[in-house]
Amino acid sequence: MKTKSETKRQEILKAATEVFQEAGFERTSMEDIRKRAGFCKATLYSYFPSKEELFMEIVIDASEAHFQATLDALDPSYDDIKQALVGFGTRLLSLLYLTPVQAVRRLVVSEAGRSELGKKCYEVGPVRSVAAVADYLGKAMEKGKLRQANPQVAAVHLKGLLEAEWIDPFMFQVLEVPSSDELTASVERAVTVFMAAYGPLSSGTPSE
Predict the structure, then answer these.
(1) What is the pLDDT of residues 1-15, one digit of tens each?
(2) Which pTM does this prediction carry?
(3) CB under 8 A, 24+ apart: contacts of 9-16
(4) Which of 31, 130, 190, 192 has the most neighbouring CB atoms within 10 Å?
(5) Degrees (nearest 5) of the Cα angle 47, 28, 4?
(6) Which of 17, 22, 89, 87 lies closest to 55 in space, CA to CA?
(7) Using CA atoms, how far apart are residues 93 and 91, in angstroms rounded to an integer?
(8) Is residue 93 assigned to a domain?
(9) Domain membership of residue 188 as a residue range
(10) In angstroms, rounded to a whole number, what is the distance separating the alpha carbons of residues 170 and 39?
(11) What is the number of domains present in the chain?
C-alpha cells in the first residue's frame, strides 16, 4: 500500500504529465501543475523544486524499473546470444511502446529543440542504454560469440533494427499498441538481420 506522501507524489506526476502533454514544457508553469493537482504551492515545491526536475522525474518514473529489467536480459553467461538478444529486444520494445512511455517520448521530442531537456533525456535514456548494450556486445565479441567489430556501432545498429518496423508509425502517431506476438516477431526478424552482420565468422571465412 502506498504511503500518503507517495500517493501525493504520484498525483503530482500524473497532473504534470497531463498538463505537459496539453501545453508543452515551455508553456506549462508550476502554477498550472499545482492547479491541476489540487495542492497548495508549498506542497508542490516540497516534492519538486522546479519544473525541470519534475519533468525529468516523469521521464525516469515512466521507464526506470522496466529499463533495469530490460538490461538484466543481457546476461553475458548465456550461451545462445541470439536468444539473449531476442529476450532483450522484446523487453525493450515492450517498454518503449507502453502507452505512457510513448506519451513521454513524444513530449520529449516535441520539446527537444526548445530547451536543454531533450539533451538531458537523451543522456538518461538512449545514451545510457546504448552504452550498456555496447558493453554486453563487446564482451560477446571477446568470447567469440560475435565477430570483432566496434561494439558502440553494433549497439546502435541493433537498436535501430529493433525499432525499424515501429519508429515511423510511432513518430507520426498512427501506431496502434502492438501485441506481444507482433513485437516478438519483429524482434526475431531484427535479430536475424543483426546476426547476419555480426554473427561469428564461420570456419574458413576471412575476417575484415
Answers:
(1) 445 588 999 999 999
(2) 0.76
(3) 9/47, 11/37, 11/38, 11/39, 12/37, 12/39, 12/44, 12/47, 12/48, 12/54, 13/54, 13/57, 13/58, 13/61, 16/54, 16/55, 16/58
(4) 190
(5) 25
(6) 17
(7) 6
(8) yes
(9) 52-198
(10) 34
(11) 2
